[in-house]
Amino acid sequence: MYFEIEPKGRKEDFFNYDYEYGQVKKALARKEKIIAVVGVRRVGKTSLLNLVYNETGGLKLWLDGRIITDPKKEIFAAIYETAKDGKPRIFGKIESLNLSAFGVGMDIKLGSESRVEIEKKIRGSGHICVFIDEAQRMGAKDLADVLSYFYDRFPQVSFIISGSEIGLVEEILGEDDGEHPLFGREIAKVAIPRLDRNRAMDYLKKGFAQLKFDVAEEELDEAINELDGLIGWLTLYGYEKGVKKSKDALKKTSQGAAQIAASELVHFFKKVKNRKLYLSILRNVDGAGWEELRAKTGKDLGKKLNPNLFTFALERLVRHSFVEKRNERYYLSDPLLSKAVFLV
After folding, report:
1. Average pLDDT over residues 224-237
2. If we measure between CA atoms, which residue out of 51, 20, 11 comes closest to residue 165?
3. How far is CA 229 from CA 121, 319, 337, in A?
4. Is domain 197-264 annotated with CATH 1.10.8.60?
5. 170: pLDDT confidence band, cut at 50, 70 and 90?
6. Regarding predicted confidence, which is higher, 216 or 176?
7. 176, 281, 301, 307: most buried by Cβ count inside 10 Å?
8. Nearest CA among 344, 163, 164 for reference residue 259
9. Quick check: 321 and 192 in contact, CB under 8 A?
């Protein structure tokens, strides 16, 4: 069913990303070492990873980047645990992995087992697929070091990672940084676009048809105008309207989505010092160019902004996929962020 609110796990429930799905499957068949699934929030990256994970045979493990605090220790330990047990593993909660029993890091020693023995166990386990969702949520440098280490030493280990395009490509994969540990490595990148208006309409119509539930096209138009082509929000709307039968489904969807987006902003603001500056930028992003946006933000804050400070903050919002840059102008990547900024 299209309007399930959990990430999709079956091909028949996965809408309209056949090409991207095929690209990931082909890269896995080639045993590419790093496969990056990129795109802004709510375009279906987690569903794509989940689908491919379910269809992948052999040894595999799933790691949620949101709960990884020490990539060098935890990723290595999780891969070793999978190799040692010889069965798939899902680490949705890091406490399910008893890391306190391991003295691990990049200089591995594990009880009486030497680093050489641990590496031998991993190499002897055949092809291992490591799925990391929300990869950009962990330390970029540490994750890059882990990926580089495995890329060079364990050719039979494939990483399939997802994250926001700018944050993932620039910070973790080092695509344009000659001094980055992964620079020059072969990386298969699969971009997940948001749905255009026609595909968004097709998705909603087919989803409601599955439920045998009629919705006027004018109402679907209104939902697309409000939620853009972000399949995550469209799914939430379809669930609210077609499954829960809410009379004010769009209003409830917008309110709920704004709260989710606000929680992500709260998490982001824990890492920044000048919260008011970032909030003001988000409130004034409306297709403005750099100079216009700096002027609006400065007026909002009642002071002239240092160009370097403003650029640093704006680029950080772009890297974390809250803001998109298109044709030298800046836009909110998610229309619900315009409401979310007033909830934090």
Report:
1. 93
2. 20
3. 45, 20, 14
4. yes
5. confident
6. 216
7. 281
8. 344
9. no
- In this model, does residue 108 exceed pLDDT 90? no
Hey, CA dihedral for 198, 200, 206, 212, is it positive or negative?
negative
Give the span between the Cα atoms of 313 and 70, in whole angstroms.
26
Domain ranges of the chain: 17-191, 197-264, 268-340
Which CATH homologous superfamily contains domain 17-191? Answer: P-loop containing nucleotide triphosphate hydrolases (3.40.50.300)
Query: DSSP of 220-246, one letter per residue?
Result: HHHHHHHHTT-HHHHHHHHIIIIIS--
Structure tokens at 321: 């996929």
Contact indicator for 65, 92 with CB cutoff of 8 Å:
no
Which residues, 6 or more positions from 293, have their beta carbon under 8 angstroms from its beta carbon?
A: 281, 284, 285, 314, 330
Tokens 């799933």 belong to residue: 62
In whole angstroms, give the CA distance from residue 325 to residue 342.
22
Helix (H) or strand (E) holding 59: strand 59-64
Nearest to 154 by CA among 121, 112, 189, 184: 121
- The more confident residue out of 13 and 96 is 13
141's CB contacts (< 8 A; 6+ apart) are none
For the stretch 138-141, contacts whose Cβ atoms lie closer than 8 Å and that sit 24 or more positions apart, written own/partner, are 138/65, 138/68, 138/69, 138/71, 139/71, 140/167, 140/171, 140/172
**CATH architecture for the domain at 268-340:** Orthogonal Bundle (1.10)
- The helix (run of H) or strand (run of E) holding residue 197 is helix 197-210
Report the chain's mean pLDDT, rounded to a whole number.
88
Distance, in Å, from the CA atom of 334 to the CA atom of 86, rounded to the nearest integer, reads 41
